[in-house]
């Protein structure tokens, strides 16, 4: 038996074929003729071969023209079939879909997002994999290359962009969003929420910084023990310093500053920060603008308690993208939380979420108990609270142990703290959701599109902003 080609046919098949192509192939084929003294096993083998369909080896590589046509087809399919679930716009119109390339049976989809701090980024990448896999020939591999572009500071009014960048200075020129975490009462867990929120946002893929603005009682050096707590000079300019980077988050606090700086309360073992309001404002400005923050999607500001000079200084120096309120369930604390929301609203800052810390505990029998009452729930129908999502954190020994150990709960991630970690995850996704809307010029999900917010300082309305 002799085979000239990969196509094995019987001699009689030649008469049944009429096309020129098949005649050309059949002319090169050789019939299988059994010898006179054939073996039964060989006969069975020949029968199986002749009854099988032709096995044609197809070259799966594409010509440049075919590859270009397939690339354009994939781009159109992604534009028509895939919308971002938050922005309700296709990824090509958003400018996220940069290109599609095909090389050596590998299809690469290149995404360039303004931030990787997207609550549904993994689902978006999975949808792209699924859609593209249905468009390409078998045997092709689909890759999604996702990265973030350089951050651009968020502004509500594009006409103010140049002035805003100039006012921020070189240290903040590549920070997209500023998020204030505040409370009107001390001791409610504001710093705990700020630290864990920062590390949870970083775990989602965000470029995150955390500034301890509470210069009267800096908590960051207690809650986070960096491997290298020294503050170094920056090459960005005279008087500029680099933040401390620990586990993916950039940190700065008066407690990290050298006690030789001359600032009251500086250093890890610094004494009381006794200073009047104007000096406190200057120290905050120096910590904020004198730090070379680099590229950040969000800078979390751990504000001091109350509604004083530091808060006004921050709102004058920065255009805050939003705020997170922290309170406890007692009626007294919840009432003050409402005042805080009113204050930030009057300054043109929307409170994206309210965290009710130490809200309850669960006993061994599975019951949930509220030892401090349910004050914030009763206020949820209030006009201010009705626009804000509320997240309840339990009384937790795990959180307390993490604070005392200098490793935030969202960084240590003990398995027994799954309930607390799930709340911080939901809070981070909520914040990321709202910041993504703002970054693309959309109104907050809690604000009516086109609504105007008056920014007033000292009782005088100084500016109106169009949100959305």
TrEMBL record:
<dbReference type="Pfam" id="PF10609">
    <property type="entry name" value="ParA"/>
</dbReference>
<keyword id="KW-0408">Iron</keyword>
<keyword id="KW-0067">ATP-binding</keyword>
<keyword id="KW-0547">Nucleotide-binding</keyword>
<keyword id="KW-0411">Iron-sulfur</keyword>
<dbReference type="InterPro" id="IPR019591">
    <property type="entry name" value="Mrp/NBP35_ATP-bd"/>
</dbReference>
<keyword id="KW-0479">Metal-binding</keyword>
<dbReference type="GO" id="GO:0140663">
    <property type="term" value="F:ATP-dependent FeS chaperone activity"/>
</dbReference>
<dbReference type="InterPro" id="IPR034904">
    <property type="entry name" value="FSCA_dom_sf"/>
</dbReference>
<dbReference type="InterPro" id="IPR044304">
    <property type="entry name" value="NUBPL-like"/>
</dbReference>
<dbReference type="InterPro" id="IPR000808">
    <property type="entry name" value="Mrp-like_CS"/>
</dbReference>
<dbReference type="GO" id="GO:0051539">
    <property type="term" value="F:4 iron, 4 sulfur cluster binding"/>
</dbReference>
<protein>
    <recommendedName>
        <fullName>MIP18 family-like domain-containing protein</fullName>
    </recommendedName>
</protein>
<dbReference type="InterPro" id="IPR033756">
    <property type="entry name" value="YlxH/NBP35"/>
</dbReference>
<dbReference type="GO" id="GO:0046872">
    <property type="term" value="F:metal ion binding"/>
</dbReference>
<dbReference type="GO" id="GO:0005524">
    <property type="term" value="F:ATP binding"/>
</dbReference>
<comment type="similarity">
    <text>Belongs to the Mrp/NBP35 ATP-binding proteins family.</text>
</comment>
<dbReference type="GO" id="GO:0016226">
    <property type="term" value="P:iron-sulfur cluster assembly"/>
</dbReference>
<dbReference type="InterPro" id="IPR027417">
    <property type="entry name" value="P-loop_NTPase"/>
</dbReference>
């Amino acid at each position: 038996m002799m085979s000239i080609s990969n196509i094995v046919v019987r001699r009689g098949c030649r008469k049944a074929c009429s096309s020129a192509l098949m005649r050309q192939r059949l002319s090169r084929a050789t019939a299988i003729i059994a010898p006179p003294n054939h073996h039964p096993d060989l006969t069975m083998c020949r029968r199986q071969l002749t009854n099988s369909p032709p096995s044609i080896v197809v070259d799966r590589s594409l010509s440049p023209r075919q590859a270009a046509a397939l690339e354009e087809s994939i781009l159109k399919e992604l534009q028509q079939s895939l919308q971002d679930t938050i922005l309700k716009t296709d990824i090509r119109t958003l400018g996220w879909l940069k290109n599609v390339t095909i090389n050596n049976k590998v299809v690469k989809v290149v995404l360039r997002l303004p931030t990787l701090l997207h609550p549904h980024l993994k689902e978006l990448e999975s949808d792209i994999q699924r859609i593209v896999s249905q468009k390409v020939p078998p045997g092709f591999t689909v890759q999604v290359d996702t990265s973030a572009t350089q951050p651009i500071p968020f502004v509500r009014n594009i006409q103010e962009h140049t002035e805003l960048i100039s006012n921020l200075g070189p240290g903040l020129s590549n920070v997209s969003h500023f998020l204030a975490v505040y409370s009107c009462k001390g001791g409610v867990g504001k710093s705990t929420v700020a630290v864990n929120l920062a590390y949870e946002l970083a775990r989602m893929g965000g470029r995150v910084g955390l500034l301890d603005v509470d210069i009267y009682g800096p908590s960051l050096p207690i809650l986070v023990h960096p491997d290298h707590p020294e503050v170094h000079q920056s090459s960005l300019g005279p008087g500029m310093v680099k933040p401390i980077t620990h586990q993916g988050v950039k940190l700065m606090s008066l407690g990290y500053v050298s006690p030789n700086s001359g600032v009251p309360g500086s250093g890890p073992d610094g004494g009381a920060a006794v200073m009047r309001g104007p000096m406190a404002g200057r120290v905050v400005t120096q910590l904020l603008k004198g730090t070379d923050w680099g590229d950040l999607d969000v800078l979390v500001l751990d504000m001091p308690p109350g509604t004083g000079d530091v808060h006004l200084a921050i709102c004058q120096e920065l255009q805050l993208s939003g705020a997170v309120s922290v309170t406890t369930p007692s009626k007294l604390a919840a009432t003050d939380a409402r005042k805080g929301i009113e204050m930030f609203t009057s300054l043109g800052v929307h409170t994206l979420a309210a965290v009710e810390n130490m809200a309850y505990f669960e006993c061994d029998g599975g019951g949930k108990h509220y030892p401090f009452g349910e004050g914030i729930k009763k206020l949820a129908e209030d006009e201010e609270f009705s626009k804000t999502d509320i997240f309840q954190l339990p009384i937790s020994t795990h959180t307390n142990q993490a604070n005392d150990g200098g490793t935030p709960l969202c960084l240590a991630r003990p398995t027994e703290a799954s309930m607390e970690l799930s709340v911080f995850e939901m809070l981070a996704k909520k914040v990321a959701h709202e910041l993504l809307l703002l970054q693309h010029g959309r109104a907050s999900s809690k604000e009516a599109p086109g609504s105007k917010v008056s920014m007033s300082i000292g009782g005088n309305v100084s500016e109106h902003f169009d949100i959305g």
